C-alpha cells in the first residue's frame, strides 16, 4: 500500500519526521558551484520536501553522512584518551538507486571483512534510507549496465509527479502518521532507469599482461592526479589519519580520520622513501581494476555503481566508462592472440 501526498500533506508529515530525524537530501547551494556564478547540487540538511532537487544529479554522493570526509575519532591529553561522541539524532537520507547500491559496497568494506569498524557502524545504525525515483538517466550514467538502476532495499521511496509525492513505506510505525496526511493508493513503485546513453562492458577475464598494457600510459600525460574522481565516488573508502595538536608540546589534541585518494601523491608511499605507483597511469590502473575486477572477485559484484560522477568532475575530461570499455577491448585482444 502506498500514499499520495499533496505539498500541504507532505509538510505536515515532514514536521513530525523532523522531531526524530535529521533529514538529508540533494539540495541546491546557490553560488557554490565549481565555476563563478554557478550553483552546486549536493547533499545537505533539508527542512521541507520542496528543497529536494529531483531533476539533477548530486555532484557528491550521500556517503559522507556515514563516512565523513573528516571525522574525529578520539581526543587525547598526556594521560587520557576520550572517544568522540556519536551523533545523537537519527538520520533520514534521500538518495537514488545507484547511491543506495553504493551503501552496500561501503557495508561490505566496513562491516563484512572479518572486522566491524565501530565508527562507521555507530552512524550506519542511525540511518534510514528513502529511495528517490529516477525515471531518466543523466548523460554520464551507466547504472543499467552495472545492475544498480533498481533497488528494493529501502525503508521508504518517493517519486515527485507534478505537484504530488507518491511514497511507498515499509516501516510500520510510520503508516499511521502517513495515513493522517495522505491518500492511500495501490501499488506505488519507485521509478527506475531502463536505458542509458553511456554503456560499459566489463571484462570477464584479466590476463596478467594487462598490468603492463599500453592502455594505462595514456593517462600518464592526461591525468593530473587531483583525486577529484575519488572524492565524488560513492564507493571509495580509503582514508588516512591526521593528528591535530592543541598544545606546542603535542600532548593534547585529537585524531581524525580523513578521506584519502589513490590518485594523489603520497598515497602509495612506503617507509624508506619509496612509492609503488609514481606514474599517473599506474594509479589509474589501480583504481580501475579495483572498481571493476578485484572487488568483484572477492564479493561477487563490482565496486563501481555507474553513477558517472567521476566523468562529470574530471577537469581533464577523462571518462571512466571509456577506460573500462578500453580495458575490455584490450583483454579480448590479448586472449585472442594467446
What does the model show?
The structure is a single chain. Helix content is 30%, strand content 21%. It has 338 residues and is α+β, with helices and mostly antiparallel strands. The protein has two domains: 164 residues, no CATH class; 105 residues, no CATH class. It has an eight-stranded mixed beta sheet with strand order 3-2-6-7-8-9-1-10. The longest helix has 20 residues. The radius of gyration is 22 Å and the shape is globular. It starts with a strand and ends with a helix.
Through-space gap between termini: 57 Å
User: By helix and strand content, what is the structural category?
Assistant: alpha+beta
- How confident is the prediction overall: mean pLDDT? 94
Largest sheet strand order: 3-2-6-7-8-9-1-10
Topology of helices and strands:
Layout lengths: L1 E4 L1 H11 L3 E9 L10 E6 L24 E7 L4 E3 L6 E6 L1 H15 L6 H7 L2 E6 L10 H4 L9 E6 L2 E6 L2 H10 L1 E3 L32 H5 L5 H5 L6 E7 L7 E7 L20 H20 L9 H5 L6 H18 L1
Parallel strand pairs: 2-6, 6-7, 7-8
Antiparallel strand pairs: 1-9, 1-10, 2-3, 4-5, 4-12, 8-9, 11-12
InterPro entries: 4Fe4S_Fe-S-bd, 4Fe4S_Fe_S_CS, Helical_ferredxn, Sulphite_reductase_A
Keywords: Iron, Iron-sulfur, Metal-binding
Protein name: Anaerobic sulfite reductase subunit A
